[in-house]
Amino acid sequence: MEAKGFRKAGHSPSLLSAFLYFDVSFMIWVLCGALSLYITKDFGLSDTQKATMVAIPILGGSVFRIPMGILADRIGCKKAGLTGMGLTLIPLVWGWLGGTSLQQIHMIGFLLGFAGASFAVSLSLASRWYPPQYQGLAMGIAGAGNSGTALATFFGPQIAQVYGWHNVFGLAMIPLILVMIVYAILVKDAPNAPAPKPLKDYLSVFKHADTWWFSMFYAITFGGFVGFANYASIFFYDVYGDNGHPGGLTKVQVGYLVTITVIAGSFFRPLGGWIADKIGGMRLLVILYSVVSVCAFAIATMPSSFLVMLLYTSVMMACLGMGNGSVFQIIPQRFSSEIGVITGIVGAAGGLGGYLLPTYILGPLKQSTGSQVTGFLVVGSIVLLTTLIFYAVTRSWRKSWAKAESGVNF
Questions:
Q1: Strand partners, 249
Q2: CA–CA dist 169, 184 (Å, integer)
Q3: What kind of fold does domain 12-190 have according to CATH?
Q4: What residues contact 360, with CB distance under 8 A and at least 6 apart?
Q5: How far apart are CA 409 and CA 218, in angstroms?
Q6: How would you class 117 by CB atoms within 10 Å of its CB: exposed for 0-12, middle for 13-18, buried for 19 or more?
Q7: Which residues are 241's β-sheet partners?
Q8: Entry pTM
Q9: 118-171 pLDDT per residue, tens
Q10: If exposure means fewest CB atoms within 10 Å of the residue's CB, which of 5, 105, 184, 197 is most exposed?
């Protein structure tokens, strides 16, 4: 009965399209990370340069998410989505036919941020079609487009091994164009979408402290997910690869491990939203942040078996994915009329977290210490502190806007 009620509550073709748009865009957004072992070999990069290279697309996504969120509110999610996909073709063509210098790779990576900005549009599209009691599940289904990461990490290294990494960018245009066609045919803008407002009205959400709290908490969950997803190939190959360990993992085998890890994070996102609908996003997030912190400390032990490490990283990514769904179970209840721009702002913060993780923590600490251990000790400590802050902040939310009489389980 509940599944039937969910289907009747919204517009399934638009929800499917939101998922497909996010899925193919996420696949494209993380191409630099998926192909990092091949790209970095061509340019002979240091540990810090490798981390920066895979993080620049995340920074681009962070920058473009706010304008894409505003665009979704002003012209509708259908037109905004088609615009985003059209812009995504630019770096794909450049990566296919160019990308012959590190500077070009950085520019291509930054423009791949147009794909990362799909988040602000696809989640707005899903949210507007569904009532409060189904927000967690609807946003989780659309957000499961994170699974595009798995497509990139699984197929990208195999194609690069045979045809070269440049051709991976060219081939990625095919699914993008197919999704553009499906999106143009199936998507309908929700009838309850708010009327366009002046730009200053959209940006007024920055005045609310809750905007900054949500941004911080999402920087941990989504930032952790996308930051590690892009860095994971470098991490696994550094610790278990055949470059430093006789009989170790090949680049393609590393791609398989990364795929398993990101699948855990991607497909648990809808589950996180669904559980948040049942027991409350705030209660669930305290548990998830705690587990992520424990997993980060466990990863820092650097087990000799890559299968044990795969277990640690997969559990961590699953909790981060569920955390993404949980955060967005709460946000629409607080900012229902500004969902496009708030999704862009919070999403931008998540992307920024994903940029900072490899660029300023994992990469530099690996280069300065010669080991991945310190980086994950720092990550575990940051998440532990965030858990305590989150618990304190949500107590004040329960006294202000997160009321039981709203009908939503917080």
A1: 241
A2: 23
A3: Growth Hormone; Chain: A; (1.20.1250)
A4: none
A5: 19
A6: buried
A7: 249
A8: 0.84
A9: 988 998 888 888 887 777 778 788 877 878 989 999 999 999 999 999 999 999
A10: 5
Phi then psi for 249, rounded to 5 degrees? -75, 140
CA pair distance 18, 145, nearest whole angstrom: 8
User: Measured between alpha carbons, how far apart are the two ends of the chain, in Å?
Assistant: 23
Question: What angle do helix axes 306-334 and 118-129 make, rounded to 10 degrees?
Answer: 60
116 touches 58 (CB < 8 A): yes
Ramachandran angles phi, psi of 400, nearest 5°: -110, -85
In angstroms, the CA 296 to CA 320 distance is: 12
CB atoms within 10 A of CB 395: 11
Q: What's the Cα-to-Cα distance from 277 to each of 132, 188, 330, rounded to whole Å? A: 9, 25, 9
- Residue 123 vs residues 97, 106, 110, 366: alpha-carbon distances, Å: 32, 27, 22, 35
DSSP annotation of 407 reads S
User: Which ranges of 204-280 would DSSP assign to H, the alpha helix?
Assistant: 209-240, 251-267, 269-279
DSSP H stretches of helix in 2-134: 2-9, 12-29, 31-34, 36-43, 47-75, 77-97, 102-111, 113-116, 118-129
Residue with tokens 């610790």: 239
DSSP state, residue 187: -
Contact predicate 268/322, CB 8 Å = yes
Q: What one-letter code names the amino acid at 269?
A: R
Q: Which residues have a Cβ under 8 Å from the Cβ of 46 and sit 6 or more positions away?
A: 367
Fold of 204-409: Growth Hormone; Chain: A; (1.20.1250)
Domain boundaries, the chain: 12-190, 204-409
What is the radius of gyration, based on Cα positions, of the chain? 20
- Tell me, yes or no, if the two domains 12-190 and 204-409 fold the same way: yes
